[in-house]
Every structure is written in C-alpha cells, then in structure tokens.
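hi! just following up on the protien thing from before. the input was this:
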Amino acid sequence: MSGKIKYAFIDRDGTLIEEPADEQIDSLDKFALVSGVIPALLRLQQAGYRLIMVSNQDGLGTDSFPQADFDPPQQLLRQILDSQGIHFAAEHFDPHVDADHAPTRKPGIGMLLDYLRSGDMDFQRSVVIGDRQTDLQLAENLGIQGYLLTAEQGWRDIVTAMLATPRCGRVERNTSETAIKVEINLDQMHKPKITTGIGFFDHMLEQLAIHANFGCRIQAQGDLHIDEHHTVEDVALALGQALDQALGDRRGVGRYGFVLPMDEALAQTSIDMAAIDLAAVDLSGRPWFVLRGELPDTRIGELSTAMVQHFFHSLAQTLRAAIHIDIRGDNAHHMVEGMFKCCGRALRPALAVQADEPAIPSSKGLL
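and the predicted 3d structure came back as:
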C-alpha cells in the first residue's frame, strides 16, 4: 500500500469558485471562492491526498469563451492557493459541450485515464468532490467514492466525513489448500470472531486482536487433515495484508511499539512499522522477523510450536514490518500466549493514529 496514492479529483466551478448565474467564470468580477474551501483543502493535503482539478469548461477556446477570458480567474485561483501552501498536482479542463458526446467530458473518464492506468491509485481512499450529479457519476465510473457539495453539506462536512472513515482492510485468500477471509477495522474495536479449526490458534489470534485494540473477523478452512501448516501460514499472510491495507500510507501512526510478563514467561516485542518496500530495497527483499528464545514443547493442543515462529514471520512479510520478539520461560503455553499478547500490545501504539501528528512518521516521507 505504501506505493498507492490517494487522489482527490476536485471540480472547479461551484466547488472551488462560486459559480455565477451564467455558469461561466470569464472575468475577475465573477471570481469568489467557495466558503470553507481553503481550510478544507489544507486538511486534505495534510491527510496525504494528492489534489487534481477536473472541470468541464464548455466552449473553452471558442469565440463564446476565449482562452484569454478564462486565464485571469484561473491564474488568480492558482495564486491564492499557492499563497496558502495548497498545491494541485494537475489541472484537467475539457472544452466540449454535451452535444459533442466527448469521452473526456465529465462524467466520462477520458481526462483521467492515465491515473487509472498508472497502477498507483488507491481506489479505496481516492475521491471525487463536486457540486453536480455528473461529479458523482464520474466517481461511480472511476470506481471510487464521490462527495456532493451542497448548501446542506459544505466543505467542512465533506472533509470531516472523509477523514472520519474507519481504517478498514478486507482480504480473501483462496488456494488449493486454504480459503481465508479476514476483515480488520483499526478504529472500531469489537469482540474478535475467529474460526480456523485450530482451537489454540483461535485463542492466540483473539489475544493479538484484543491487545492490539482492533476489530477482527477471521474465517479459515484449510487442509487440517494433513497438518496445520497451510492454515496458520495463510491466515498470517492474509492478516498482515489486511492490516497493511487498513493502514494505507501509514500517515500519522505511532509506528513503534513493548514488554509483557505472562506468569513466569517474559515476552519483549519490538515493532517498527517502517516497511521495507520490495520494489525499492535491494537487501533481503522482504520485511524482517527475529525470535530470540526457544519454546520447550513441540505442540500446544493442535498447534505445533514451530508454526508460532512461522506465523510471525509470515505476518511480518505482508504487514511489511520489522518484528523482534524476545521470549523466555518454562511453560510453552504461557510463552506463546505472551508472544501473541505482547505483539498485540506493541501493535497498539504502532497502529494508533497520533492526533497531533498527521505526517508520515519517517524522515523519508514514506513508509
């Protein structure tokens, strides 16, 4: 997810600039910003959205709407936005009228095909914001969320709704060996609902979710008639992927996390939410897991203790996190439970959004 971009495709007339009665902003006399637009754009930009202006400009460049009339209001808009530290990465204006049936005219997606083809668009979080039904239709055609600016729903309402959206992840992983469904909500805790067919493993996953303080549903069917290997591994991979999906660009998260005693066992977990990007790092080529300590038994109920280490290794892989666990003790049950609880407790501050820190917690600006 770190390579995915949250786009905000924003209409101009009636959304950024008040639209006059003749629906054509062709002079500075007709220029007035929509109420609340500046603080709203600043909040979106701070939240990591890439701003893109997308507007139908009927007849632009013709005698009825010369480019020379369009340019001064547009230049003034740019100057005001620049003065407030607001940057639009691109501007797209379509000059056609309805009768042209041009694919580039909203709600057609012709002006935005490059974004769809790039492969870097975050479809879950990208949005269209405008003041007309054609803007909502554009959002539907793009497969993303649309927000309509109205007298009842202003800029502040829209941005609040956007940024209040729970961080959720949903993954289905189906192979010839397993069928896994994982649903995660990082911002709404509920009692975990977990069924993997391995009782002790279910209990450990519940402990992980409860202590990490996220909502979690996991359903898994696997080839347990052979052994538990594929089920444990694929649950870990799907869980890590769902968490990574819910984190988005990881903006504002705590990133780091912790020590937890479990009777005679002591588990210490260090977590760094800084991901190793597979496409950008030529070292190990994947995230990292380190376990220091040995479990005294080979099985706990239906779960092989060897699969505990493999679970955390697989989780780190798709969560794209460095996880270190130090464990010591005498009772394998206590030690493993301490590992899951401790990992959860380390994840809790790492996953949590810091209210006073909206930036990505890295000097690189990317996790």
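The mean pLDDT is 87.
DSSP finds nine helices and 15 strands in the chain.
cheers
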